[in-house]
Design goal:
This protein is an alpha/beta fold and 378 residues long. Helices cover 30% and strands 19% of the residues.
């Protein structure tokens, strides 16, 4: 949204990734922001940077259909695909993209046979807000190739992030963009100070860590994280990241290239809401303002943000369908089942015993990261 209260300074209000779920209270907050923006002569850009449906019962049960219906009803500007958007196969990801009322943007997602961008995504899009042209370049993490089952991404290739970003940065600038916006399914380090030290070689472990890539600090498979990417590729004014779901109350700003990078938590727990301040005459990014005095993250407490009834009605049939399936009693447990740490644990034993029984297998195993919740007694 372009802020009109100061004649020399404009801004765009961004609302970021909802993170894989749909919430009528998020819709209420978005609607209120839009109403306030309209009254102030501002513009709103509502975006999501991937992993839009997996990990929630309603998302999985409907194979993402309910989430797209929600996104269409709320009115998103665009989506960037994430690695989990291929969990039910590339055909399903394409189906979701084609039923969307908004574009899916990814400049490094190509057909392996031709090297061309998949025809259900576009590599970039230029948005015009009151005379300011914003060129959006979308990127999906190349780690998708390692994190997805081969059959789910068969025929797809995920190109290098740095090379793709540099190429399309130049393209959007040549086509008249005043600002470059990187929307990316890749995240910042969990510890920004340590991440910067690693990046600048201020620790003894930098070489091994950055060459190999780590899941914990970089959330990358042999690649780079978002901090490394915007530091390596200059000319990006601001970015919105995801994937790691590491919420930043204030953007990380590259000390050299001055790229502002925002990231919110995942799983529908928060929205990112930032006001970008842009000089109207020079069309340069001056800074940002948070949505409140604590920064740019909005926690979706339902007792503070009442659900929007109109949007609730859109997703109600999907909720009812999912709840009917989930409310079936399949068993009871006399004690609480916890995950504990690495090694044998109660939830792991339950899961692996179920796998052995279901498949009549001789043995089974389960990685700890795939166990996402404890089970209470009952």
């Amino acid at each position: 949204k372009l802020l009109m209260d100061d004649p020399d300074t404009d801004g765009i209000v961004m609302i970021g990734e909802i993170g894989g779920t749909m919430e009528a209270d998020a819709a209420r907050y978005i609607k209120e922001v839009r109403e306030q923006a309209a009254a102030a002569g501002e513009e709103v850009m509502l975006v999501d940077v991937g992993d839009i449906f997996q990990g929630t019962p309603i998302g999985s049960k409907t194979q993402g259909t309910a989430v797209i219906e929600y996104f269409n009803a709320v009115g998103y500007e665009f989506v960037v695909p994430g690695n989990h958007d291929f969990d039910m196969g590339r055909d399903n990801a394409e189906r979701l993209a084609r039923m969307s009322d908004f574009p899916w943007i990814a400049c490094n997602l190509v057909e392996e046979a031709t090297g061309e961008i998949v025809d259900w995504c576009i590599p970039y899009k230029i948005f015009e807000f009151q005379g300011v042209e914003i060129g959006v370049v979308g990127i999906i993490t190349p780690g998708t190739a390692s994190m997805s089952f081969p059959q789910n991404i068969q025929g797809l290739k995920f190109l290098d992030m740095a090379e793709s970003l540099a190429r399309y940065r130049d393209i959007v600038l040549e086509e008249g963009a005043d600002l470059v916006f990187l929307a990316i399914h890749e995240g910042l380090p969990y510890d920004p100070e340590q991440g910067w030290k690693n990046l600048t070689g201020n620790t003894e472990t930098e070489t091994a860590t950055e060459q190999q890539g780590t899941y914990g600090s970089n959330h990358s498979y042999g690649g780079m994280n978002l901090m490394e990417l915007v530091h390596r590729v200059p000319g990006v004014d601001f970015a919105v990241g995801g994937h790691t779901h590491r919420g930043y109350h204030h953007p990380w700003i590259d000390p050299v290239n001055h790229t502002m990078v925002f990231e919110s938590y995942g799983n529908g727990s928060s929205l990112g809401h930032a006001v970008l301040l842009i000089d109207r005459e020079t069309k340069t990014l001056l800074g940002y303002e948070g949505a409140h005095d604590r920064g740019t993250l909005i926690t979706l407490f339902q007792d503070e943000i009442w659900p929007d009834e109109e949007i609730a009605e859109v997703i109600r049939p999907y909720h009812e369908q999912t709840e009917a399936a989930l409310n079936q009693v399949v068993g009871t447990t006399a004690i609480a089942l916890g995950r504990g740490g690495a090694g044998s644990n109660l939830v792991g034993n339950l899961v692996t015993d179920a796998m052995r029984t279901y498949f009549d297998a001789d043995f089974s195993f389960q990685n700890l990261g795939g166990l996402r919740a404890d089970l209470s007694a009952g």
